[in-house]
Amino acid sequence: MLKPLNTVTRELISLDGLWFFALDTSGLAEPWAGPLQTALEAPVPASYNDIFADQAIHDHVGWVWYQRTVRVPRGWKGQRVVIRVDAATHEGAVYVNENPVARHIGGYTPFEADITQLVAPGEEFRLTIGVNNELTNVTIPPGAVYVDSLGRRKQSYRHDFYNYAGLARSVHLYSTPTQHIDDVTVRAGVDEGTGVVDYEVLSHGPALVHVQLQDASGHVVAQSDGGSGVLRVPDAELWRPGAGYLYTLIVQLRAADTIVDEYNVKVGIRSVKVEGDKFLINGEPFYFRGFGKHEDSAIRGRGFDPALLVHDFALMKWAGANSFRTSHYPYAEEFLDYADRHGVVVIDETAAVGLNLAIGGGVHGNALEKSFSPTMFNSETQAAHAQAIRELIARDKNHPSVVMWSIANEPESVEEGARDYFAPLAALTRELDPTRPITYANEHRGTFSSDVVADLVDVLSLNRYYGWYADTGDLRAAEVHLETELRGWQEKFGKPIIITEYGADTLAGLHSILDQPWSEEFQRGLLDVYHRVFDRVDAVIGEQVWNFADFQTKAEITRVDGNRKGVFTRDRRPKDAAHVLRARWTAATARAEGNE
Prior knowledge:
CATH superfamily of the largest domain: Glycosidases
Structural class: alpha+beta
CATH topology of the largest domain: TIM Barrel
CATH architecture of the largest domain: Alpha-Beta Barrel
CATH class of the largest domain: Alpha Beta
Radius of gyration: 24 Å
């Protein structure tokens, strides 16, 4: 799905701002049929949970309603008019006046509707968007809704981050010509120094396709006619980690000498390949240094904020990071746009977190039933998971910063049913995009001797917490057990290994001269242990600390105001561990660049 842009043939209007807001408890059978009877106003984009200082809104399970009026520009006469929702967590329904126009399940990918026949240029219409936060065993991520002893609807889930909901990303109205470009797919690579850009354009209407590839200075370096083809760029400037050089592919629909529609795609020419136990970008070994993150901040919850985006990238650069994983869902596309421009490497992950009955909220245990079964994570769950993969790749396929797809985080991987569940999903991911490696983030019960799906992926991504959940407080034992396990993975599979999570909860300001969990010194000491082991195991090609910053979780006695594994606090103040990472990672960068 193409991100809406302003071009010479298209116009884009942001509908961000304050919308009328109501919980679906008003008794109205069809809240979209007229003006919402409410005094509440909610900001878009933002999660609604923490906005109102109201427990009932914070804890609400079910539908909520957003509404505003929108005026279609007078100049859009004869144009196609589209409403686009960047995300509605976890289910969205869109109404134009009394008319349903779109419904979408999946809280982190966009959806849209052609509303041309329902609106008129120069006139207003009432736009209502319903958002439902309910999770079930057949949603991605999964959960369960139940009624407690007081008759209240409650939501349970197994992922260790708060179930923020609402319109957390932007809403837009945009126009295109009636003959228009529907989709563009770009697959760029390198052939003996020559950049190769394979493109495919899907369009609506009889107009002919013409493409031009321009360099960063605006010079045309290649062009072609037709809906698909290959552009070759001798001595191409490559997109590299730390140097996000971008070309622009200008796609035009033409009738004679008239441009009927135009859409522009940023293109980074680079190659990605797994070879033995190495991960190669442009033929050179790449070592991942960075974080697992969350779209999380005070008040706005998961709501997109450009100021926070820029600040988070600045902090990652300060720490010497070169990568991050979109744990545990696709982030707003603005994150990937920024990563493209600045040469930051991304592991892009679906929202398939919590597919594991033996783990929840960071606490490991034994399940009383199978995770993959007709009554739990079943064929319907698998179908929803497949759709999540399709939508992730459809949205993010053209981003050069995305070098790998992660199809799940910490799923059950030791049950026999896990292979039947994941083998078709791995095959689907490769079919949709044969140019990028795939992975999934493995939790500690799936060892090199018990995991039944690790052979399906190209890179072994391991989330490990020796010294925290295992060997708690015992860093000497943690070092031995971590190294023993990593060497086992290396010897059995011979694949690259990224430690996609490691860390310890840490209360900023708590200090100790002992190995005391929750102290800043313990967090530093634990990171030092892991780094020593990483440096001794050749197959380790990456380290991504859990987590970049403290984040909110559901209320539990094991969490004090959320998960505190961040090396930055939730308001982005550094703990001591941030300085440990900065010293290690900036020195590694200097060595790689030959400046040390």
